[in-house]
Amino acid sequence: MTVAGWLTIFLFAAILTVLAIPLGRYMAAVYTGERTILDPLFRTPERLLYKVMRVDPRREQDWKAYAKSLIIFSLAGWLLLYLILRTQTLWNFTGLNPQHFHSGTWNVTFNTTSSFLTNTNWQYYSGETTLSYFSQMAGLTVQNFLSAGIGIAVAVALIRGIIGRSGKSLGNFWFDLVRTVLWVLVPISFVVALALVWQGSIANFSHYLIAHTLAGGKQQIAMGPVASQEAIKLLGTNGGGFFNTNSAHPFENPTGFTNFVEMLTVLVIPAALVFMYGRMVGNRRQGYAIYATMMLMFLGAAAVAYIAEAHGSPAQHAAGLHTHVIAGATGGNLEGKEQRFGIAGSALFDVVTTVSSCGAVNSAIESFTGIGGAVPMANLSASEVIFGGVGTGLYSILLYVLLAVFIGGLMVGRTPEYLGKKIEGREIKLVALGLLITPLSALFSTALATASPAGRQSISAAAKGGPQGFSESFYAYLSQANNNGSAFAGYTGYVPGPHGGNLGAHGITFADLLGGFTMLFARYAPILFALAVAGALAGKKISPAGLGTMRTDNPTFVVLLIGVIVLVGALTFFPALLLGPIVQGLTPHLYA
Amino acid sequence: MRRDIVTSAIAIVLLTLLLGIAYPLLVTGVGQLAFPGNANGQKVYVHGRLVGSKIIGQNFAGNPRYFQSRPSATVPPNDAAATTFSNLGPNSVATEKEISANIAAYLKLNRPYDPSLSAATVPVDAANTSASGIDPQISVANARIQAHRVARLRGLSLAHVDALISQYTSGRGLGFSGEPGVNILELNLALDRIGRTA
């Protein structure tokens, strides 16, 4: 471990907070319709969009109407994306398929489509060997924006439910979506994309290059409009790489500086939403309490991952490699890590993208040490409420807040209240269902996949027969159920053709479909429950806080909230974690 | 219901044009104008022939006069059109074998020129595969070890090669983010230029 490594972690936390506070203020203004600095730029396009879409943005929607618009719009997006990917060769006339890649098979495309729709970005395909620039742009980039927009819209709707005064309205879905895209996602993505190009990311539509290397060989180098997709991949906590090795690829993440910028880009909106929340409910301390909860858990995860990776792996030590820091070398477990990021830059990136629903990787998580690999699994087991995905993080932790209030209320023997609203049976039932859907889908799918021969064929050859094989399978469904998208990437649902591309390729139907349905179910069911909770809360009267009201903006509540999150996660996932990464972390034994 | 369907259909087409066509075109256009070299992949030409990209690692195996890249999991090594991780686990025999083989190859290549080298002093980046498979850098320690070999084979002084290493070493981002590394395509090109002028 190095001073620079620890500095990276703590400066990251500090700079993130400094950026998130003003962004939270700005976003609060965006959703309450107050004036913002970008109004002159986007007011006209906004009005035009509503007009062509035949939408009245002032029409109030109750939770059912809001949910209906959201679901039907998602369905339309799913159909168009599936169509674009399946008819990839039809779009060759645009000139945006210079490598003449064939279209994907139905099963892998089903998985990919569901994956990008749900903000998961789980990838069985490899970008640079199967997808045209047109598919990446008009297909995937679009859903990178829209899935992020939908997540944030749900969070805003839930906030409106919490602060609503005896009404039914949660706002208007189309207003929230269009505002998110225009006022938040597009401008920040544009700036980040250009910063990436300035550092070395590429942005072109060129043929792949053929270089004649110094040693006398040939090297083909993939090209493409990378920067534009890279920016929203991070900002929208999507995580689907343009290239197979994602943010490890020098064209996606060229320097130590971009690595830092990319990590900030991932967490800035999830962090800002918490401050926005405090503003919108009229009590900023509520936001601070949630922020403190998230930050404490985040720093804990980052420290454990860094220490574990700096220690090195049993395989390294068995091979006689010395893994302590020496002058001019990083030391530690550098298997599947890039020199320019080093141990701290890889461990922190991994934590950033697994506490959020981003799932981008700049190193191979499968090659992390046992404990280092247990950290992302633990993050996922906490259902991504430590910052979490854009929107999803906030609405999920608010469900945990309601649960904590309920448990706290039982402990002190009073009717639980949150921000003046009574939490009663109906709300708590919905909250419990909303929180249990994700773990349930993860465990159910893992069980199916590990107990059946059809599921086990996805396990990579090197991992068969040891705890690694279980870790791979468990991670796959834990990641897909949480809409994260990072992977123990040896696990596969796609067998490339003889020349590496889609020609002659086939999918592994079991893994493709199980994963696809897991992602869809674990995304939309919690959204519906969150909206239903919002609907139930919107109609409640706000009673003034009295002496006996349990406070939800002080350190005691932070401790209670962390306790509830850890308890629910641990009780649900501990047995599974024991079978995989913890076994690997505890033993120096090597498995064949 | 009907209203939502009509709106959704119009919205998805409209937003696809906006976010899937206009936005990438805008970023790519501005990128091409502002940073044309970077946007096109920092191509490196020698005598008018494309020899690679400055930030993409390439394979120098078989030519010990060049600094060697980190081990790569792609097939063939350093394939920049089909990148992949090794995905080898921390407790796997396969990982141990791969690392042992990499250490042995590194010692075989470098110990004749640097007798003090042993398995215990091999830097991790020389024995572990990179993430991208096309890591353009190696660690400074790794470069200093290989410098013995390259200096001898090229008839240069060790001090001269070490000076070149320092010249092509980039530091941490912002002074703290990431690790220093040596760009070996640039370093090898610089060595070739010396050869030509001598």
How is the secondary structure organized here?
The complex is a heterodimer of chains A (592) and B (198).
Chain A: H1 3-32, H2 39-53, H3 63-86, H4 106-117, H5 127-130, H6 133-163, H7 173-199, E1 209-212, E2 218-221, H8 226-235, H9 256-280, H10 284-311, H11 314-318, H12 342-355, H13 370-381, H14 392-412, E3 417-418, E4 421-422, H15 425-451, H16 453-456, H17 467-481, E5 494-495, E6 506-507, H18 509-538, H19 555-586
Chain B: H1 2-34, H2 36-39, E1 43-46, E2 49-53, H3 93-110, H4 124-127, E3 137-138, H5 140-154, H6 158-167, E4 169-170, E5 181-183, H7 184-197
Antiparallel strand pairs in B: 1-2, 3-5, 4-5
Helix pairs in contact in B: 5-6
Fold and architecture overview:
- The complex is a heterodimer of chains A (592) and B (198).
- By secondary structure, chain A is mainly alpha-helical.
- Chain A has one domain (3-586).
- Chain A has 19 helices and 6 strands.
- In chain A, strands 1-2 form a two-stranded antiparallel sheet.
- In chain A, α15 runs antiparallel to α17.
- Chain A is globular, with a radius of gyration of 23 Å.
- The two termini of chain A are 30 Å apart.
- Chain B is mainly α and 198 residues long.
- Chain B has 2 domains: 1-40; 42-197, no CATH class.
- Helices cover 49% and strands 8% of the residues of chain B.
- Chain B has 7 helices and 5 strands.
- In chain B, the strands form 2 sheets. A 3-stranded antiparallel beta sheet of chain B has the order 3-5-4.
- In chain B, a hairpin with a 2-residue loop joins β1 (43-46) and β2 (49-53).
- In chain B, α5 crosses α6 (158-167).
- Classes of the chains: A mainly alpha (592), B mainly alpha (198).
